Amino acid sequence: MSYARVLCVGLVGVTGHLVEVEADLAPGLPGLVISGLPDTALHEARDRVRAAVVNSGQRWPNRRITLNLLPATLPKFGSAFDVAIAVALLGGSGELPLAPLDGVVILGELGLDGTVRPVRGVLPMVAAAARAGVQRVIVPVANTAEAAVVPGLRVRGVDTLHRLVAFVRDGAPLIEPPRHVPPPAASGPDLAEVAGQGLGRRALEVAAAGGHHLALIGPPGAGKTMLAERLPSILPALDDAAALEVTALHSIAGLLPADGGLLRRPPFQAPHHTATIPSIVGGGAGLARPGAISLAHRGVLFLDEAPEFSRAALEALRQPLEHGRVLLARSRGGAEYPAQAQLVLAANPCPCANPAGDERCECPPQARRRYLSRLSGPLLDRIDLQVRLLPMRAAELMAPDAHESSAMVAARVVAARAAAASRWSALGRRLNAEVPGTYLRRPPWQLPASDTADLRARLDSGSLSARGFDRVIRLAWTIADLDGRARPDRHDVGEAIQLRTGEGT
């Protein structure tokens, strides 16, 4: 037999595609050619695979070898094709009977000694195989726990090419995935630890309930970072679909924990202010990798000292914030990643950052304007809540612990989100922040003119943009959901204006 075919999976962005690895061995000058849009790592596979085959005690076919990766129009990236290439070569040379591998997807990178090494992105690859109707997959032993997350698949692991050859020839058993034992719930930061700042706590609760973006502006020590770090603690746990999305993104980035289970807690990303554009929105040579905003998908992206970030990096967030996805175009094809993260900005009101606040600020008005103008108007217009925190007072700091815990606030958030999901289910939306403004301005969801008179006046005077108008309405719906009312009233709209503009804070 001079032809063999083995199944593998290629990954473009977060989307997997079933790939057929074809091997044709013909008489002629010995050599190996790989076609099907391989990248540099795949071109180098010829040397890795040859050494692995020989060092595993197998005979390398001394013939002209042509490898083709179908579909040939799909770009192929990475080293996850190594094991499939080796098996296809041995099958085409007649060394291996490939009947036991019929309909089986094979993933893994080969070391020169024949060991099978783990690869990134196994979870989305295996999920793509399941969608294509595949029922059995063979992955590196270090990736078995991750692959076993996908239901309906029989997952087996290999640690060496020799073990896989023994399975095909003699039926020797492969390695079963370990039994997943959920780790104990980690005790993270709790909202009860935040002293004072009733307005900040209220803004955090509204942001969590409606999925709104949040900006916290205040002097050092006011609690901006403490509040932001506790936002994930009041967000609901991820459901199965969201957990699979988040886990797949972390798998591609190589950031999954050792247990390989689904990530159920909303992720939290807090890049340093020196972070580059590719590290925030994604990028890199070859296949673009997900950035911090995609790794924060279904969770929180926190930019502390936001005015210190480069203006270009901040402006790059505008499109993902608006559409919930980021498309990274490259010469060999684009990669699209989900980016539905809640953005939280923290900033001092001025360069001197006097802990006493505006009362003792030493900065001239021009310097204050220049400092906060690093957060551009178009970016801030996409931030639903813009809250100014006051300096901490001794009475607040020394008060006995009487603040609500994260668990208590999270219960209200869950109830508010359930109300919003029930209301917007016909639109395919789950959060108030996701509802298009056109729906909120039309019956039956349009609010009475008497309740929105102040809001309309601000729009007509130019102090509020059309986008800001819609975001205030969304905030009002979230406030009503938190307070258990079916519709917002005039007071809800007033509080939403205050949380949106920072007036009176």
Automatic annotation (TrEMBL):
One annotated GO molecular function: ATP binding
SMART domains: AAA (SM00382)
UniProt keyword terms in alphabetical order: ATP-binding, Nucleotide-binding
Origin superkingdom: Bacteria
Residue ranges constituting the AAA+ ATPase domain according to the UniProt record: 210-393
A Pfam family that the UniProt record links to this protein: ChlI
Gene3D superfamilies, alphabetized: 3.30.230.10, P-loop containing nucleotide triphosphate hydrolases
Keyword Nucleotide-binding attributed: yes
Family: Belongs to the Mg-chelatase subunits D/I family. ComM subfamily.
PANTHER family per record: COMPETENCE PROTEIN COMM, MAGNESIUM-CHELATASE SUBUNIT CHLI
Protein name: ATP-binding protein
Species whose genome carries this gene: Micromonospora zingiberis
